[in-house]
Amino acid sequence: MRTTTVGDVTILLPDLDPEGLHQITDLPDDDLHDGLMQDASWRGQQIADRNFRGCRITEADLGEINWEGGALYGCEIVRTDLSGAALTGVNIERCSVTGSRLTGSRLIDVRLKDVLFGNCRFDYATLNRVSAAGSVAFTDCTLVHGTWSSCRLSGVALRSCDLSDLELESCRLDGADLRGNRLHAFAAPLDNLPGVALTENELPELDRMAVDALNIDVRADASRGHGR
């Protein structure tokens, strides 16, 4: 059993046997088990109610795919282009996604369990009603200019990520580990963030969010510099 730990979150990783994988080039018409997709291009393809299990997808072009229903289980996705992809109602479990590009992607009603995103680009991505049913971590990811709404991501780990200009609306990140992130212009209602873990370096950004949320009028001290 392969695992990795990000902060306090331990994730079960896929444990693939490279010799047991068979090469796949074209998108199959049904479920796929133990496939190896390398340098394949499925750009713009439609995928419905398809299950991939124990597969490795590496250096593939899956940009602008539209995947509805089905599941990814025990899969590795490496250095793959998923920019502009739309995943709706997909279950992702015991998977790792590393070095991949998800710029402008849309994840809707996606369920995550034991999923690691490492060194991925989620800039301008939209997450809507994405839920964490188990351990989930983002590490060294770029999440700038994204929009997350109505997500249930309690206890996730976001470590060493760039969250600049990321907007959260009606999301649950209670107990999330946000240590070591860049939070410039990060926007979230404070009641979305109960119990999150931060370092002292992130506190000024939290202060800014509190000032904005409470509409506090910060002024210079009028009495400073005047004698009595």
TrEMBL record:
<protein>
    <submittedName>
        <fullName>Pentapeptide repeat-containing protein</fullName>
    </submittedName>
</protein>
<dbReference type="Pfam" id="PF00805">
    <property type="entry name" value="Pentapeptide"/>
</dbReference>
<dbReference type="InterPro" id="IPR051082">
    <property type="entry name" value="Pentapeptide-BTB/POZ_domain"/>
</dbReference>
<dbReference type="InterPro" id="IPR001646">
    <property type="entry name" value="5peptide_repeat"/>
</dbReference>
